[in-house]
Every structure is written in C-alpha cells, then in structure tokens.
Amino acid sequence: MIAKNMVSKKYDLIMGIATPAAMSSYAAAKSTKIPVVFTAVSDPVATGIIKSIEKPGSNCTGSSDILPLEQQMKMIRTFLPNAKKIGILYTTSEPNSVSHLAKFKELAPKYNFEIVEVGVTNASEVSAAAASIVAKGVDCINNFTDNNVVDNLSTVLQSAEKANIPVFGSEEEQVKNGCLASQSIDYVALGKETGKIAAKILKGEAKASDIPVYTVQECKPVYNKEMLKKLNITLPSEYSDAAAITK
Question: What is the span of the domain harbouring residue 209?
Fold first, then answer.
C-alpha cells in the first residue's frame, strides 16, 4: 500500500530496503517510468525484479548483500569443531532465504555438516519452528538475512538458550542482540554505495536499467563476548582479531 501510494504521488524515485520492500516497490512501479533502487537484497535475480546483476534490464537496480556463506560455515566449524548438525529456519516465500539455504546445503559436505531445515510462512510460526528445530538435536542454528526470522530473532534465541546451543547470525546487529558470531557485512558502506546509484539516476546520468547491481565484497568476523562466556566456548585462535560485540 505504501509503495502504491508513492507511485500515485508520482515520486521521482522509490527505494526499497530488503527483499520484501524491494519486491513491493518494483511491483507498484513497473508499469510506470518511476525508477526503483533497492538495497540489501541478497538475490535480486531470483526475486524477478532484475534480469541480471550486470544489466538489470528493468527500471530497477541497486545493491546486493550476498552473504559470505562459505566463510560463515568455516567459522561455525572452527567455533564448534565437533558439531554435526546446523539448524536453519527460513521463510519459504523469501527468495533470498531459499537461495541461501540451497547454497548452504551445497557447502555442507565439504565441512562435514548436516543441514536440518524448517520452513515457515509467517511470524506466528517462528516460535514453534524454533522449538522444533532444537528438538531435532542440532548443534547450533545459523540465521540468514531472512526478514521474517530476523524480526522474531528473540524467539529463536530463547529456544536455543534453553538447549544451550549457539545461534550464528549474518550481521553485526544480530550478534549484538544475542547471536554468538558472524561474518558480518558492512551495511553502512552498502547504503552509501546505494545512495550513489540513486543520485546518478536522479541527476539523469544513467538509467536504472543500465546500472549494474553493486554487490558487497568484504565482510569481517564479529563475536559476542558475553555469549562466548555463557556457552563456555573458547575463542578460536583463528578469530583472535575478530571484533568483540556487546549489547
């Protein structure tokens, strides 16, 4: 409704932050000349809002927070050398989460992990799904940038805490809120790059359809010092230079 209202008011540009907002903005503006710029969309091609990263093709472009999934899995293996099962909660209607899950399952054999997945369709299912995945005997839970799950992260953390298992996040704020560790993307830097794209379009220097999607290239390891102590886990020497995060 908000996106449609922006279109009706003939805004010069609409920006959508994260996958659901980007998809709504694109759907509302696709039959108009209003450009859409998105940010923090992990798999924009899978959502259908662009044709390719190099040449979007539609009146839509922006920036992508493609998660460093292999680095994340390597981190989990290093923190939990004896772990066997990683639990994944994901929303079945979020294309970014579906593609992340597929990639994680592809990587799992390389690091001797089994992926235990539970899909949800809305916020009301997260609590039961979190309890279910813990009951399946997972050694930890890994969270993607799944908007629905992130919005209900406290519920996931509560279930994990009862079982005394860690939750690995996908960015710094999740670690600050109680996840053990993450290979974190710099979302402030991502936002700045997205702003440059929007400025270029508004100045008439380029069309959205011709501007390649910016993808974040760097990440940094972060960990929650309090959770490390609470779970009685020793910080691996490989991550001695990681940033310690506290609430």
Answer: 2-66+186-217
